[in-house]
Amino acid sequence: MADVIKEEISVSKNEPIYPIGVVSRLLGISVFTLRMYEREGLILASRGTNQKNRLYSISDIERMRCIRDAITNKKYSIPAIKAILSLIPCWKVVNCSQEDRLNCPAYNSIGSPCWTFHHKGNVCENRDCRLCEVYSNFTNCEEIKSYFKQI
Ligand code: SF4
Fold this sequence. Notes:
This protein has helices at residues 20-27, 31-39, 58-72, 78-86, 90-94, 98-102, 133-136, 141-150, and strands at residues 18-19, 46-47, 54-56. By secondary structure, it is mainly α. It has two domains: 13-76, Multidrug-efflux Transporter Regulator, Chain: A, Domain 2, CATH 1.10.1660; 77-151, no CATH class. A three-stranded antiparallel beta sheet has the order 1-3-2. The mean pLDDT is 88.
């Protein structure tokens, strides 16, 4: 009898490895709806090596579960969720200069999270939002509230 080799596979929470079809099945959310979450800027999907296939991490799945709960059970609209996400004080997390703040479309508006804006010429221009703490540290509403309690 062949030996059974057990390997321990460890996957980081932020590693994008799940295709959209798998996430759809895991969460019971249609592929159409998952794409719509992305179009609305609620989620930033990662692209596979061919730049076409969306891939999601465990953190992304947690985020989508929270979004679905907010919409289905708490009856939040998508604009309301975007407005909540826009309140995350990204300028404090990223520690932008006063000048950057004045030139930042996200700092100067409300209604959409900072990662949905174009940031030409300011501190966020070359940052990868998927890796940024502003995006990755707030996968659910409780985390946003805990952050506000600390500041
Ligand atoms: S890098 Fe992206 S997520 Fe981070 S503060 Fe800038 S726009 Fe927001």
